[in-house]
Write the structure tokens for this entry.
Amino acid sequence: MDPLLDLPQLRTFFTLAQTGSFTACARRLHRTQSAVSHAMAKLEDLAGTPLLDRRGRELGLTEEGRRLYQACEHVFATLDAAAEDLRRHQTQAKGRLRVGATVEFGSSILMKHMQPFQAANPDLEMDFTLSQDLLAPLLRDDLDLIIDCQEHPLPTLKKSPLFREIYVVACAPAFRKAHRLRVPADLSRGPVLSLDKAGAWWNRFLMAVPDDEQPHFDRIIAVNHIRAMIHAASEGMGALLVPRYSVLEELRRGDLVPLFPAIRPTEDRFSIYQKKVKAAHEKQRLLTRYLQSLSPEEFGS
Amino acid sequence: MDPLLDLPQLRTFFTLAQTGSFTACARRLHRTQSAVSHAMAKLEDLAGTPLLDRRGRELGLTEEGRRLYQACEHVFATLDAAAEDLRRHQTQAKGRLRVGATVEFGSSILMKHMQPFQAANPDLEMDFTLSQDLLAPLLRDDLDLIIDCQEHPLPTLKKSPLFREIYVVACAPAFRKAHRLRVPADLSRGPVLSLDKAGAWWNRFLMAVPDDEQPHFDRIIAVNHIRAMIHAASEGMGALLVPRYSVLEELRRGDLVPLFPAIRPTEDRFSIYQKKVKAAHEKQRLLTRYLQSLSPEEFGS
DNA sequence: GTTAATCATGAATATCATTCATAACCATGG
DNA sequence: CCATGGTTATGAATGATATTCATGATTAAC
């Protein structure tokens, strides 16, 4: 009936009015500036009258905009209250929850974020199994819930997308300088670290490099453990290719610097898998929700 | 931030609670029952608790559902008020508006629906040009706004989708009986009406018929005017292929009956085109909005 | 039982929002 | 005046999500 009820747009408008800038609003909502611009164009078109007062630098609201803003305040207040109300009625989780995850992800990101959840559910006994082989234990009920980047399209499983695993090429700053790394082909000049001797680990990256810029790896240092590889790279032993989330700290501190940001290796998607029959259990639902509430950048995406 | 703000879903929930039935709710919102079901499943999953009380036939709300319903009442009330407020500030259209449309559509559907708009804007002088050639007059500013089923992908034009033109095959009830029309191939038995002698008019239909059921047209009666064709068909002269909107009346009265509803000829899309610079004018905007507010079934879709 | 109505489900599709890449704009400082 | 850095706008391509289609499952009524 009412075509103004396009609500993601109103949320955008609301935040935009608060921040006073498209760019800031975009950041706040984890969108791009372009998305905000499009959304507002559409909203104004729908409303049939300008809502924003774009006078150069500063951004204001028109008369109509201001009234709409007030309606928004009202609406979002009740909505948030309702959401809060629903949340309140979630009983606290009890019992035991056996979580499985891939080794690298589990040991870094997952562990770094479980504290608040644990604190909120003190009566929940959790234990974690980090391993490559997660599906089998899940199916035979040795695990309740797994976090995996492999696809498991079984009809008995419920899949909840979590985040996308972005890969980066990086090395120590000194290493970059010493080997003058500017384009992918320059990687031929120095050693690269790889999970396997043959260097197949790097295929994900090589596939994203144009044919005429392909490096040729002469010296491959094999290290069958990602964390070990990271330490090696931090010391300047070579360049490495790893999931972004595993080196968030190193990048922030400057121990490692990203190489060739223009090249985008194929991404993997991490999802939560759980048996459908058990997915409704309070404890499983709560953890799923908690993990999904974490913002993308916490996972390095 | 708040993932409960998925509002099309809330609107669905709200109507569902009011109608008390998935099917009825679907009808009200011009969706399928399936869509409603999916939406509610998602909403409950999001809320984390059942909101609907599905006890067999009758449908009730759970405690949480009821509270959410109240929030909805509140929210939609303010929202509707805000929308109303925006609408109120639309000045009434004045001046002159020259509308172009395709012949069949313009003479039937369009004319049948312009009265309310005209009444709401008594000071607006409108005139209508029905023709095949609409783009040229629009570009040279002989028309302000056209309604056409051809694609005009020009960057200076603004396109607003209106409805999809569905084609039906139909004939008089007596004709169907006389020629025992059950499957497409049976069309070979009787005359068919076509806009052109060669029968190319029917390609749209033939392309949707499996190869082994293709009819062969022996007797084609060419009539270069759709309305004339319809009258001929109503009298039992032959089967015809026409846009559904053009025979809404005849179908309702039973003068014509639809044939082979399983076969779906390719659809065309009607859109409004207007010059971007002029699309903002009050009179053009109002008409666009008015036409878009008409529900699909008014156009036979 | 059998039927007719209702709701659920999964896969395919269509629709819409978001991004990417880039243009246009505006203020400020050479 | 023309650069420059910081904005917002725009169009095409993409990706995510809602919707449909086709069908199964459940219930109520006869």
About this structure: Chain A has three domains: 7-88, 95-164+268-299, 167-259.
